[in-house]
Amino acid sequence: FCLLISLSTATHGIAGKMKIVEAPNTFGVNNNFLSHGSRLQAKVLPSPVSGPSHLFHLAGRCFSLTQSVYRYELCPFHNITQHEQSFRWNAYSGILGIWHEWEMANNTFTGMWMRDGDTCGTRNREAKVLLACSSQTKLAQVSEPSTCVYSLTFETPLVCHPHSLLVYPTLNEKLQKEWDEAEQARYEGLVTEQGYNNLVRDVFEDAGLLKSQKAARKPPRVEAEVETHGRHLLILYRSAWMRRGAFYLLQDFHKQREEIARLRALLTHHNITKGAKTTAEAQQLRGDVGLLELAKQDAA
Ligand SMILES: *[C@@H]1O[C@H](CO)[C@@H](O)[C@H](O)[C@H]1NC(C)=O
Ligand SMILES: *[C@@H]1O[C@H](CO)[C@@H](O)[C@H](O)[C@H]1NC(C)=O
Ligand SMILES: *[C@@H]1O[C@H](CO)[C@@H](O)[C@H](O)[C@H]1NC(C)=O
């Protein structure tokens, strides 16, 4: 006995948060003489400041490092730029990335992604900032592990405490609860690993730690397959857009189980059992949902 549920509604309101960012086209309009750095045209606006609140006061500050012929400038939560140290009239200055989102693993902030930098062949330059504990606050190192992808090490005493980069404490109560529920669902085997990852991603997006991908999501369609015994719930995501909906479905499923227990008690009370079998035997053979069928037959 299988239940196949198709959802096509309950998705309104999710898209409301979507924000399209463009650099204002008046940017740099006063720079007639291509003065140093003024040619830099950001493609996007930086994401809002997010993550551990003790890092917020780094916003608006900039740290530079000169390595060989380049001076790099990191402005946390804003941008990374590169300036060729040369007196050539056309010395290169460029944007390596604009503050985009956090990278997280194992409940820990592991890096700050700065994306949508200057064009580099068919893609845009991007950079990951690694935070390292040190007694001084400074940009310590810049490398380019693969073409046009930069890696920066930013040192600061602000990340020395062992809990300073934990994700969970930065979330509000509601989002913590949602994360707890996702963990519980995974623990009970009610969601697939992919489903769990999607639920947690939603939490991070709502917290502003990850840039929302909801804009890119397609019209909603989710199919969930509920196996008989209430132990296993396989959720197939036809669209990431409906992940949250699927989670509510899961919560409904818990309610449904309670309803089944209620029906069972009712049936027992009215001595409704199949053939010679006792209610307990029938349960064993049919599973919970079998009783639903029985109830339907009874109603008909
Ligand atoms: C980079 O960030 C700094 C600090 O917030 C800001 O003053 C500067 O205009 C930004 N540059 C670009 C090209 O976005
Ligand atoms: C996850 O973090 C905990 C402590 O925060 C640590 O003990 C554990 O080894 C980490 N696991 C992985 C896979 O990094
Ligand atoms: C159910 O069966 C029991 C004993 O078999 C009987 O005493 C009771 O009255 C029955 N209840 C109903 C609602 O028929």
Automatic annotation (TrEMBL):
Residues 167-284 form the DMAP1-binding domain. Coiled coil: none annotated. SUPFAM superfamilies: Mannose 6-phosphate receptor domain (SSF50911). Keywords: Disulfide bond, Signal. GO terms for cellular component: Golgi apparatus. Residues 60-162 form the MRH domain. This is N-acetylglucosamine-1-phosphate transferase subunit gamma.
